Amino acid sequence: MIKNKIGITLLSALLLSGCSAFGDRNITTQTVKVQVPVLYTPTPPVLIRPDLAIHELPSNARNNYAQIARHYKITVIQLLNYVEQLEIVLDDYKLISETLDKTGVLINDGIEVKVD
Fold it and tell me: Of the N and C termini of the chain, which has fewer Cβ atoms inside 10 Å?
């Protein structure tokens, strides 16, 4: 059994080394600049969620519909302002994305980056 394993190992070694007997191959290496996308996005700003006015409605005002309506109106205004802040942040990231799509970025290690 051991003789068979040694024989198979020697035979496979001879067959594998025989592949290199067909002559020298001219293998050369060269450095090529490769264009790769470099995606950079800054850290998003911290947006604080508003404390909604509807949550501050006193429990004794459940039947005071004018006060409920006032709190709902303030809440809607707060949410609209918050959404506008989120849209401003998204517009900034959209501008960054469009800029990366149109221009290349050259980084210091010699790799030219161009996104087409």
Answer: N
